[in-house]
Amino acid sequence: MRRRGWALPLRPLKKTYANRVILCGDAGGFVNPITGEGVYYAMRTGEIAAKVVTEALEVGSTDEAFLSQYQVEWKGDFWKELKTNILFRDFLLNRAESIMKTVSKDEKLMEMSVGTGLGWLSSHEYKWKLTRHYLWLLLKSYVEAT
Questions:
Q1: Would you say residue 4 lies in a domain?
Q2: What is the largest CA-CA distance in the chain?
Q3: Does 1 reside within a domain?
Q4: Fewer CB in 10 Å around end: N or C, the chain?
Q5: Does residue 12 lie in a domain region?
Q6: Confidence (pTM)
Q7: Could you tell me the residue range of the domain that residue 58 belongs to?
Q8: Residue 97 falls inside a structural domain
Q9: For the chain, what is the domain count?
């Protein structure tokens, strides 16, 4: 048996529906961009897809126009959270070493960072708290160094 693998998707596809098709979970690119976890998004997109498909079958319309409601619904449900995590991941990747040094010096910032990274805390809710606290620490470090 030949084994194959593929990288985790970095973000949801621009279009997660087509005629008679809805993409859920990994197939649609729904993975936590920080942790790589995808069970939550697979379950949630599955629930949304089931609702939309049920409605589509009830009205007898499984065309792209009707199924586009799926994307509207998942975006309304968790896109802000997912988008925040994508931006946070991109920020971290570009500054990983300096951020880790700063975060490791402050227990509150470490708890918020780990909590949002693991999904225990909402990164959408905590993004400004994290940002303010991180910037305050950078400013404090700069003042102490001068």
A1: no
A2: 70
A3: no
A4: N
A5: no
A6: 0.66
A7: 17-145
A8: yes
A9: 1
